[in-house]
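Two proteins, back to back. First:
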Amino acid sequence: MKFSSKSLEEAVEAFASLPGIGKKNALRMALHLAAKGKEKSQAFSQAINRMSEHLKECRRCHNFSDEDVCAICRDPARRSHTLCVVESARDVMAIEDTQQFSGRYHVLGGVISPIDGVGPEDIHINSLLDRVDKEEVEEIIMAISPSIEGETTTYYISQRLAQKDVKISIIARGISFGGDLEYADEITLGRSIVGRLPYKTNDNL
């Protein structure tokens, strides 16, 4: 791909560095902004700059936030005794779109994956255990994508919670094994949350 403009080439390279964006789509995006003029491009870059400067990690649930504690954790209408444990902030957004869950979340920031060098200490499991005690959590819903790594993470957390008086549930298997929550349609994901099942370790390993 040859460019007559160095600045256009750099913009295409920047877009192409994003996950799921190939060179052709990156070029299409860059040309779109270029055609819209300086004002549109500046508004776009300012939004990205504001995000990089102001976006934080909620100190309670590890979701993205503009404040030290995110809007979901601060919302008094949410059920504080029910925590939905997810892998990433994308999963929070996917579940929120279903409008079927009114509790709070805990974002692990990944799953246990020994082959990738990710152990329990590398994700937010200890802070989850702290929340169970401090917030008097009654139910943990494990809404982790069903994969070998996801099953391992769910089992590990269930073992750490075995001596605590807390119910552990998993989302119903409307989500195919190996599938990601963010790609599930809202109806299927919503039914999986509503139809959650008690977690039994002897059925999972």
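And the second protein:
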Amino acid sequence: MREFFTEALVLDKLESNEYDFIADLFTRDLGRVKARVKSGRKILSKLSPHLEPLTVSEVRLVEKAGLIVADALTVKRFNRGFKVLNLLKSLVQSGEADQHLWFAAVQTLTEGEVDLSNILKVLGYDPAFVSCFACQNPKASAFFPEDQSFFCARCSSKIPENKLVYL
């Protein structure tokens, strides 16, 4: 049985059993992981408030037939930034630890205005060096995570807004 103690940005909570849930975490040292939270959906759960989306928490994970959250303590809670969470959920695979990406994501959430270009730059999709996928316009204003392509303002209007990440 191994233990890990790390900071984690909570990306999502997924229902598991009657009282459990799965926390989708982007951690500083392990990358993106999913960990079970036993009895996390009970009303008196001490872990649940520390594992809400848009929360950075210090977590202790125990590896025992998968990862289990043993302890969690909130470090910082953010009011906005669901675009950051959606971008990380769509582009980051499990187990890819990346310190630069961790700091870029937390810095983007900490700043008042959410600018995703820094996260895209760390992931290798630098908006400064791209053009529109459809018309080759050098001024890209939106990113389409499903096929990792950039679009200008005119061409992005043809794609549903909820599928795009605006720069």
